[in-house]
Each structure stands twice: as structure tokens, then as C-alpha cells.
Design a protein that fits this description.
CATH superfamily of the largest domain in chain B: P-loop containing nucleotide triphosphate hydrolases
Order of helices and strands of chain B: EEEHEEHEHHHEHEHEEHEHEEHEH
Number of domains of chain A: 2
Structural class of chain A: alpha/beta
Distance between the termini of chain B: 43 Å
Largest sheet of chain A: 5 strands, mixed
Helix content of chain B: 25-40%
Strand content of chain B: 25-35%
CATH topology of the largest domain in chain B: Rossmann fold
Number of helices of chain A: 14
Radius of gyration of chain A: 27 Å
Strand content of chain A: 5-15%
Number of helices of chain B: 11
Number of domains of chain B: 2
CATH architecture of the largest domain in chain B: 3-Layer(aba) Sandwich
Helix content of chain A: 55-70%
Strand order of the largest sheet of chain B: 6-7-8-3-9-10
Oligomer: heterodimer
Number of strands of chain A: 5
Structural class of chain B: alpha/beta
């Protein structure tokens, strides 16, 4: 047995410190990741989202209805962003995800209220993400009562004591039972793709450099775009295999409804996968070795997870975090995949989410091609 | 021209000095190449002219800029200054066209270790868009004796076989110029000999070959050589020319106790280098009078034989290397 030697132990330790200092990127990541996590978890995440966009269809222009809408806004949960004229528009706004809630105040609302006939107040919620709506919906009954009670005076005073002056009907659209899996499993498709696609491409190109085969590739008459496309396409296929597995599991294991067209979904998938692969390719042009490529992928993956609306309601985040989230492809893909699977959205409804994906893809591809060098300079 | 033999006996085709009006036949013709990495000038004002069909040796100590020069010639690095042509194409603006006609064998094995020999060759053939791919790959496998190993993974090959694969891949697209960067490092003597026989066969077929090496026997198999040190071209020409021009004088001492003699001679004025070869000593210098003065005390020792000898290429190179370090410091 050789005895434990402090000198040898110190020698190894010193060597590790030297190597750590030489690998600047790794060191930056070790410091950067905790900071990123602190900011994201500490400031960006809020599981009690407020100021949710709400559309109101009011067929009754009375003090009662106005008071009610004002009270909803005052609660902090609802931001009345739209005043619409027809039910069709209300449905469209919900499907597109422009609003989280749609409130319908029927004609004769104030008359029925005064008669004690308990008029129907219909609140439809986009419940694809149950966490985003539950608190607001829970507060709704109290809001209605507190808003209307002061208005019930004089001869109407008696109505205050009735259980509910209005018949509040809440429709949890797209996910009536508020099943979390309906929201998570389709979202997981985007998360899995983001994680694997970025990392795989980043590694695939960095490996060429690490093993010295890049020099050979560069010495041959091949154009950067040919290399990039050739590297990316195999992983698009891998991405599709992952998607098929997740869709089958979503259907068979979790009973997630598939309301929309899978064909449309696969078309958007190409775009989404390509966007992630382009990110990976860009990382690979920066990273010096495979470890760095892994770290950079993680640095991209973390905000994607937290700021896209996958783990926490998007609308619960402060506006700076939402702005960052809007840049990430996962954010838009989540809206598309939830829209298609749960809401049965078609091409028209998802178009506004596809455009940012497309822009992201083009910008990142240009960056990747600019960074990819045809020489060893 | 005999391909084998020990170099010195081969009458090499004389490299024509620039300006003899044979511009078209130059495979490489570059002037004043400079490459800097940060503050370090790796290649400094480098010019060479290599005639078509020649085997041109590139020699010099580690870090002398051989690899950087080769990379500039095939478009992998952009020179900071200088200009010239490779196969008649401008090295600055036509690197894409140069790549099509040049075969470049990297110093470190750079084929895909997780692909088989045949798959590697097939990939290269596709990269160059070669017509008749299958036949060419089969022919290359046959020519280099790789046919019965075609399905073996490149990563499992020994050094010699890796080198054969790399050569096969480099000549697959029938390049007009081969750039070989220390192709025989770490390869056994027999494989080295076979490799050089193949290089001579290719040159005989009209290929121009620029090869960097540390081996003196390989240098002697080149038609012409260039010696680089610290980014500067020190000398060039045929082996005989380089030796003659160097002015190096060598004495060979044979007899008993060479160690004692070596210790005595080292550091004496006029003695640049003392190297032992078994029981023999090579003593070299350039100042004939001083060298002879240093040797005189030993001249009458019984059992010792001191005689003028032909300086070897190695003697010349070490002399050049010593001188270039002096210039640097």
C-alpha cells in the first residue's frame, strides 16, 4: 500500500485549478449558470399570474355591467384588453390565445339582476394551462359579489342576502377538467426537441474539430451550407422519431385529445426542429470542444424551459422576461402545439406564432453561416 | 529516373531559377508569403517555386512554419501578405478551384475513425463529385492494397494502414498537386519505404508532390528541398546543392574512447558540432583552419583515424538550425 501523500494530492489539485483557469468558457458557465438561475427563478417566475388579457362581449350597457367589468379589472387578475361585438370574434381570440378570458354579459343583464332572476354571467377561460387561470377563476365569484353588492340598494337590498345575485358560469375551454397532463405532455414535445436537437448538432460539429477531421473537410471543395444542411437533416429525422413517441404516449398513456391536424403539426415541427438545429450549429462554431458545446446547450435550454411558458404561466412573468420568452422558439412552438392538439387550431390561428419561428430560423442560420469558417484562420 | 536508391545517386531534374520563361510549368510559385498569429510571425517572407512533376521536400525544426505554409498553399489559411499561384491559380482568390486539384494529407490522421475504409473513400469521392464513384473507390482500394480491409473501421487501423488510407483518399480525385504534411511520422521503416515508392510512382505519372518531413533519408529521396527555420527559408535546392552551398566541413574520427575526444572538442573554437555515431565521431564546422587546429592535438594519437568526410544532410541542417537560433536571439 502506498501511503496517502498530501504533496501528491496538492499536485493534482493545483493542476485542476490551472486547467480550470485555462478553460475560460467553462469557468464563465460555472459562474453564469447560478446567476441565470437566480434571475430566472427569483424574478421571472410567478405562479399566480395577474393582468390576464380579457375580452368582454357586453350586450347590456348598464351601470351594473360596467361596475362588474371595472371590478374585474380592479382585482388585478383581469386586464380588459378587448371589447368585442360578436361571439365569433370571442371564440377566435381564445383560439389564437390573444386573450385568456372571454366574458359574455347577456342583454337584459341588469333587468334580470334587478328582478332577482339571477342573470347568467358567462366566463370562458383558455384552460390549456390550468395553472394560468385557476387563481383568477377562483377570485371571480367574490369579485362579482363585492362589485354588485353596493349597487344593490334601496328596494334591491334584499338581493344581497341571496346566495348569488348572478349565475356565474365558468367554461374551462379546451381542458374542462383542468388536467395538467393535457398541458404538459404536448409541451414536452417542444422541450425534448429543444434539449436534444441543440445539443446533438452542437456536438456533431464540435466533434469534427476535436478529432481533427474538420481540417480535412475544409480542404475539400464543400460549401458551408452543404455541411450545415447535411449535418442537420439526419437530426430532423431523429426529432420526428421523438415526436412520434411523444404523440403516441400522449394519446395512449395520458389520453391527451388530438383535436387538430397532425399534418399541420408536422409541418410546423420541421420549422421548429430546424430552428433548434441552427442554434446548435451556431454553438458549435463557437465552442472549442464538446464539453463547451454541452455547456452552451444547457445555457440555452435553461431559459427555454423556464421562460417559454412550459413550466410556469407565460403571462405570470414580468414584461422583460416575456420579451426574452418571445424570442425563444420553444415559446411559439408551445402555443402552436397546444393550439393544434387541444384547441383544434388550423393554419390561420397559428400563423401569428409561425412567423416568429421563421424569423428566428433565418437569423440564426445567417449567424451560423457567417461564423462557420472555410479556413482555419 | 530511378525512384529508389539513396537519393544522392539520383540525378534530380534541376529546379529552374525563376525567370527562365517556364512559368506555365510551375506547380507552386509563391512570393513573400507572411502569416502571423497574433504578435507571432510564423511564416516570414517565404518564396518558393516548385516545378511540375517534382518531389519537393520541406524540412525544418518543429514550429518552423512548414504546416502553416502548406495550409496557405491549399487555401486553409489566408496569408497576411504575399501572393502567388498554385497550379496557375491565385492562392488568395481561387482557393475553391485549388482545393479541387490539390490533395492535402494532414499531419494528424483526419479521416473519420467511425467510418470504414471504403466508407471514408466513398465520402471523399462524393465530396469531389467524382463521376464513376464506385469504380474509382475500388481502384484506389486495389492500388494501395486496402481491398481486403475495406470494411474495417478507420479507427482500428494501425499507423501504417491509416497512412495508406489517407494517401488513397488524397489521390482519389486525381489531383495535380499533393501536399503531404509529415506523412510518415510514426510509421515503421518498411511502410515508410513503400510509401515513398508510391510517391515516386505518382510523381512519375506527372503529379507534383510537396512533402514535409523530419527524416533525412526522406529528404534525400526528394528532387529538391527547402529548409525552413523560425518561419524563414534558410536554403533550397537539390540535396547536393544544399550541402555544397552550406560550406560545412566534416571530419570523421574513429577509434577508441570517442567520449573523451568528444568532451574535449566540444566548445573549442571552430567546432560547431560533435556527434557520436557508435564508435565514430562527426565533427563539423565551417572554419576549416580553426577546425583543423582543434583536431591537431588528436592527430597523432595511436589508434585514432581522422579523415575528411562528406557532410551529411543532417550535419548541414543542424548547422543551419544553430545559425538560425543565433539570428533569432
Amino acid at each position: 500500500m502506498i501511503q496517502f501523500s498530501v504533496a501528491r494530492f496538492v499536485a493534482v489539485m493545483v493542476k485542476e485549478f490551472i486547467q480550470m483557469r485555462r478553460d475560460r468558457l467553462t469557468f464563465a458557465m460555472m459562474v453564469g449558470v447560478p446567476i441565470l438561475q437566480l434571475i430566472l427563478f427569483g424574478f421571472a417566475i410567478n405562479s399566480d399570474p395577474k393582468h390576464l388579457p380579457t375580452a368582454v362581449l357586453s350586450a347590456d350597457n348598464s351601470p351594473f355591467s360596467r361596475t362588474l367589468v371595472a371590478a374585474m379589472a380592479n382585482s388585478g387578475y383581469f386586464d380588459v384588453t378587448r371589447s368585442v361585438a360578436g361571439e365569433a370574434e370571442l371564440g377566435r381570440l381564445l383560439a389564437e390565445g390573444t386573450v385568456q378570458f372571454a366574458v359574455t354579459i347577456p342583454a337584459e343583464f341588469s333587468r334580470d339582476l334587478q328582478r332577482g332572476a339571477r342573470p347568467v354571467l358567462l366566463v370562458e377561460a383558455d384552460a390549456t394551462d390550468p395553472a394560468a387561470t385557476s387563481n383568477a377563476l377562483a377570485a371571480l365569484m367574490t369579485i362579482a359579489r363585492q362589485a354588485l353588492d353596493p349597487e344593490l340598494k334601496g328596494p334591491l337590498l334584499a338581493l344581497r342576502s341571496t346566495p348569488d345575485p348572478v349565475d356565474l358560469r365558468i367554461h374551462r375551454r379546451y381542458n374542462p377538467e383542468g388536467i395538467t397532463q393535457y398541458n404538459v405532455v404536448p409541451g414536452l414535445m417542444g422541450v425534448v426537441l429543444t434539449m436534444t436537437m441543440v445539443m446533438m448538432t452542437a456536438l456533431a460539429v464540435t466533434r469534427e474539430r476535436e478529432r481533427g477531421t474538420m481540417e480535412n473537410l475544409l480542404a475539400m471543395p464543400v460549401r458551408p451550407f452543404e455541411v450545415m444542411l447535411g449535418k442537420i437533416v439526419p437530426f430532423i429525422l431523429v426529432g420526428y422519431i421523438q415526436v412520434v413517441i411523444i404523440v403516441l404516449a400522449a394519446r395512449a398513456l395520458f389520453g391527451v385529445p388530438i383535436m387538430g391536424s397532425l399534418l399541420l403539426l408536422s409541418a410546423v415541427l420541421v420549422l421548429f426542429i430546424a430552428a433548434n438545429l441552427a442554434v446548435g450549429f451556431t454553438f458549435s462554431t463557437v465552442a472549442k470542444n464538446q464539453l463547451q458545446a454541452m455547456q452552451m446547450s444547457f445555457f440555452f435550454f435553461l431559459p427555454s424551459m423556464l421562460l417559454s411558458g412550459f413550466m410556469f404561466p407565460f403571462r405570470g412573468m414580468p414584461s422583460w422576461a416575456q420579451a426574452v420568452g418571445e424570442v425563444l422558439p420553444l415559446t411559439h412552438f408551445l402555443r402552436v402545439v397546444r393550439g393544434i392538439l387541444l384547441k383544434g387550431n388550423g393554419a390561420a390561428e397559428i400563423a401569428s406564432e409561425v412567423v416568429p419561428l421563421l424569423i428566428f430560423l433565418v437569423v440564426v442560420t445567417v449567424v451560423a453561416l457567417k461564423r462557420y469558417r472555410q479556413t482555419l484562420d | 529516373m530511378t525512384a529508389s536508391g539513396n537519393g544522392r545517386a539520383v540525378p534530380p531534374p534541376q529546379p529552374s531559377p525563376a525567370g527562365r520563361g517556364r512559368e506555365l510549368e510551375a506547380a507552386i510559385d509563391v512570393h513573400g508569403l507572411v502569416k502571423r498569429f497574433g504578435a507571432k510571425t510564423v511564416v516570414d517572407d517565404f518564396s518558393i517555386r516548385v516545378e511540375a512533376g517534382q518531389i519537393y521536400g520541406f524540412l525544418g525544426p518543429n514550429g518552423s512554419g512548414k504546416t502553416t505554409t502548406i495550409r496557405m498553399l491549399c487555401g486553409l489559411l489566408t496569408p497576411d501578405a504575399g501572393e502567388g499561384t498554385c497550379l496557375g491559380l491565385d492562392i488568395r482568390t481561387q482557393s475553391a478551384a485549388i482545393k479541387r486539384q490539390v490533395g492535402y494529407m494532414t499531419q494528424k490522421f483526419s479521416f473519420w475513425e467511425d467510418l470504414s475504409i471504403a466508407e471514408n473513400l466513398d465520402f471523399v469521392a462524393r465530396m469531389y463529385g467524382l463521376p464513376d464513384r464506385k469504380r474509382r473507390v475500388a481502384a484506389a482500394l486495389e492500388r494501395l492494397g486496402l481491398a481486403n480491409r475495406r470494411t474495417q473501421l478507420a479507427g482500428e487501423l494501425s499507423g501504417g494502414w491509416k497512412q495508406r488510407l489517407a494517401l488513397a483518399a488524397c489521390i482519389l480525385h486525381d489531383p495535380k498537386l499533393l501536399l503531404l504534411d509529415e506523412p510518415t511520422a510514426g510509421v515503421d521503416p518498411k511502410a515508410r519505404r513503400e510509401f515513398w515508392d508510391e510517391i515516386h510512382r505518382l510523381a512519375h505519372e506527372g503529379l507534383t508532390v510537396l512533402v514535409s518531413t523530419h527524416y533525412m533519408d526522406e529528404a534525400e529521396r526528394c528532387h529538391a528541398i527547402a529548409y525552413l527555420a523560425y518561419g524563414k527559408l534558410m536554403t533550397q535546392g537539390t540535396v547536393d546543392e544544399v550541402v555544397a552551398r552550406s560550406g560545412v566541413l566534416t571530419y570523421e574520427i574513429s577509434g577508441s574512447d570517442p567520449g573523451r575526444i568528444a568532451a574535449d572538442l566540444k566548445g573549442k573554437p571552430g567546432v560547431e558540432m560533435v556527434a557520436a555515431f557508435g564508435a565514430r565521431l562527426h565533427v563539423t564546422g565551417i572554419d576549416a583552419a580553426a577546425l583543423e587546429a582543434a583536431l591537431r592535438p588528436w592527430a597523432d594519437q595511436p589508434g585514432l583515424r581522422i579523415a575528411r568526410a562528406e557532410p551529411t544532410l543532417e550535419d548541414v541542417f543542424i548547422h543551419l538550425m544553430n545559425r538560425s537560433t543565433d539570428n533569432f536571439s
